[in-house]
Amino acid sequence: MKLRTAILLIAGIVAVNIPLQWLTIRQDLTSDKRYTLSEATKTQFKDLNGTLKIDLMLDGELNSGFTRLRKATDEIIRELSLYADIKTQILTQEQAASLGLSPTIIHERTQDGRTAQTTIYPYARLKYNGKSMIVNLLQNNRGLSGEENLNRSIEGLEYTLAEAIHTIKQTEVARVAFLEGHGETEEQNVYDLEQALSRYFQIDRGVLGNQAGILDQYKCVIIADPQQPFSETDKYILDQYVMQGGRILWLLNGVRFSGDMLQTEGVTPIIALDLNLTDMLFRYGVRINPALVQDLQCLPIPVDVSQDPSQPNFQPLPWTYAPLLLTNENSPITRGVMQVMSTMVSCVEWVGGEDGLSKDILLATSTASMLTPTPAEVDLSDLTINRERFQYAYIPVATSLEGIFPSVFAHRMPPEGIINPGDQLKTGKKTRQIVVAGGNLAKNDWEQGQPLPVGFDRYTETQFGNRDFLVNSVLWLTDDAGLISLRQKTVALRLLNDKIAHDQRKKIQIISLLTPLVLIALPGAVVGLGRRKKYKK
User: Would the pLDDT of 251 be above 70?
Assistant: First the structure.
């Protein structure tokens, strides 16, 4: 009878385990759901028809932080392997260097007090259907510590890989247009931004003309720092483009000033800049105020403080008209983006009340700001700062808008001269726009015939977050797959107390070693004592 019961029990176990070997049961028990992939990511990888090859370059003698990043990368690739055929291999540092990649140099102090230098290549190369793309796994925000940057990098792994595979598997490249014809920033001065966007889009430039549907082929339109008014024909074409679901990145100044006059004469008048867009933007739920923003958190400029013109003495003085803008950590567009450099910017203001639009502030000033209304004058000879006047906080400079926008031509006839106007739409499809009250945020300088990165300040030799902000803005505007929302994923950072960890190192090691052994031995001892007591009777 006992034999028969044992045989039945073994047969039951085998019968249950045979189907279980083809069944995968996974449960993410972490509080921050760090091992849970979004549906958008799963969809991207389920749609792959062939093998995805991933070459990992983050290898070698890694410290604890980069070991976490490498481990997290391996873990997310294992998760992704449930939805696609993925093969990985490790590239050596020599192979990574042969690809022309810039390494990350880590300087650390060892336990014996010496300084150690480690070269790391935090990259991955994805290859699919004859195409390849290299992605940087490491985020490097100047305002964060090393541990915080590594944690942000771990948070962004899913988005980095999902966005890369979304781009690499595209059979048709989406098109983005830079508008011309209104004194917009010249192509050479947005060269760096165009190069950054060309990784994802085909970049075109051109004037609107009078063809009603001329923009329909473009996923997004960028209007960078226009200086001349828009005609009613231009506005109609743009408005109907938005009604059709088009997306626009507006980079507009609220005031007119002369940078050349300021540089040569040290003074420039500032007046309101009328682009004939006020009524249009108002209908879309936003207004750009004709005032200049000043902020105590700003860039310095070199000023000659010498009394002798023959012996100039340039000293850095704060230039409050060049505020360093704060980014919104709760928006997928600006999360993890460094401060954004700006010069002569205005402020944006929401209007329209309960218009059903989703609005979010993307860039704002610090807690010590002020507004200079127009008309006024900016004079380099007067750089004195009255701190009592800087009483405003978080003046908004950029905002995102999402929803169904009403047409500015809802109760108006199309302008004369429009070719093929088609059916005039009074309300549109759900879409997105971003309005930035500063045209020069996208402008790059040149040095010795080479373009500098957008957001690079030559005087302080500091790279700010302009490029990341602008690229993320266009990606958000054109994101139909919902991938950009993955940038909001958070992983709790739990740091050790470095002083305690160093001073009590031996004690912590002993506790860490003995605790698992005690936890294993304790149940065995309890069972042993119980059996001994049972059979002793």
Answer: yes
Residues in a beta bridge with 178:
205, 222
Tell me which DSSP letter residue 456 carries. Answer: E
- Predicted pLDDT at 186: 94
Closest CA to 287 of 437, 114, 438: 437
Q: Would you give the distance in Å from CA 525 to the centre of its chain?
A: 55
Could you tell me the two tokens for 251?
């980079």
Question: What whole-number distance in Å separates Cα of residue 376 and Cα of residue 358?
Answer: 34
Q: Higher model confidence: residue 529 or residue 368?
A: 368
Q: How far apart are CA 537 and CA 534, in angstroms?
A: 6
Q: What confidence tens digit (pLDDT) does each residue in 299-355 have?
A: 998 876 667 777 777 778 899 999 999 999 999 999 889 999 999 999 999 998 777
Amino acid in the structure at residue 331 = S
d(CA 252, CA 266): 24
Quote the tokens at residue 488: 């909001």
**Cβ neighbours of residue 213 closer than 8 Å, sequence gap 6 or more:** 240, 420, 422
Q: Report whether the peptide linkage leading into residue 375 is cis, meaning its omega lies within 30 degrees of zero.
A: yes
> Which two three-digit tokens encode residue 301?
């400029």
Side chain identity at residue 373, one-letter code: P
**Residues forming a β-bridge with 88:** 54
CB 122 within 8 A of CB 69: yes
For residues 483 and 268, give the distance between their C-alpha atoms in angstroms, rounded to a whole number: 44
Give the C-alpha separation, 250 to 163, whole Å.
24
| Measured CA distances, 117 to 61, 123, 482 (Å) | 11, 19, 40
Q: Show the tokens assigned to 328.
A: 């919104």
How far is it, in rounded angstroms, from Cα 252 to Cα 408? Answer: 19
3-state secondary structure of 127: strand
Q: How many C-beta atoms surround the C-beta of residue 93 within 10 A?
A: 15
In which residue are the tokens 């759900």 written? 430
8 Å CB contact between 176 and 474: yes
323, 369 contact by CB (below 8 A): yes
Residue pair 36/28 in contact by the 8 Å Cβ criterion: yes
- 10 residue type, one letter: I
With 0-12 / 13-18 / 19 or more C-beta atoms within 10 angstroms meaning exposed / middle / buried, residue 269 is middle
Q: Residue written as tokens 């696609």?
A: 84
CA distances 444 to 191, 330, 435, Å, are 7, 27, 20
pTM, 2 dp: 0.82
